[in-house]
UniProtKB/TrEMBL annotation:
This is DNA-3-methyladenine glycosylase I. Coiled coil: none annotated. InterPro entries: Adenine_glyco, DNA-3mA_glycosylase, DNA_glycosylase. GO terms for biological process: base-excision repair.
């Protein structure tokens, strides 16, 4: 089995993400929306490409503020499709805008995206995938799995002996509450 922990060290793009973000618990809805969107943009592509384009994606999508993205219209879609700095896939762009709108509904009903996720935690991976497919657009098994691992709801982001694992455990990921 190949681990991100094996390829990330000393890489200018992978190492900061691996060491400071990947697998750490996230409760901020803007960050959760960014991570969900980045996973959508990564589908079928390399994570390195997404990391290289992350700053441009954040600029293009109003720092993934769900309220702002939910208000995007056809003019914004055309602007995004013309932006060579981002991943210009119409389906992924449309999914990101629609997912922002759906996230606002979740926030209104549950108080936050994080609270909605926590309400369903823990679930087996297959049930997470069904839930996300029912709730959001462009949700495949890998998108859902990576999103939940990267934000601390599912384990598996790091090798057990990875030095980052101790810091993640100390941060109290949701999977740690189940694991005991």
């Amino acid at each position: 089995m190949s681990w991100y922990c094996d390829v990330a060290p000393n890489d200018p793009f992978h190492a900061p993400y691996h060491d400071g973000e990947y697998g750490f618990p996230v409760s901020d809805d803007r960050v959760l929306f960014e991570r969900l969107s980045l996973e959508v943009f990564q589908a079928g592509l390399s994570w390195l490409l997404v990391l290289k384009k992350r700053a441009a994606l954040n600029a293009a999508f109003a720092d993934f503020d769900p309220v702002k993205v939910a208000a995007f219209d056809d003019t914004d879609r055309e602007r995004l499709l013309a932006d060579a700095g981002i991943i210009r896939n119409r389906l992924k762009i449309d999914a990101t805008i629609e997912n922002a709108r759906r996230l606002l509904v979740i926030q209104a009903e549950h108080g936050s995206f994080a609270a909605w996720i926590d309400t369903h935690h823990p679930l087996p991976k297959e049930d997470w995938v069904k839930l996300f497919r029912k709730t959001f657009k462009f949700m495949g098994g890998e998108v859902v799995n990576e999103f939940l691992m990267s934000t601390g709801w599912l384990p598996g982001a790091h090798r057990p002996d990875c030095p980052v694992m101790e810091r993640i455990r100390e941060a109290g990921p949701a999977w740690g509450r189940v694991e005991g």
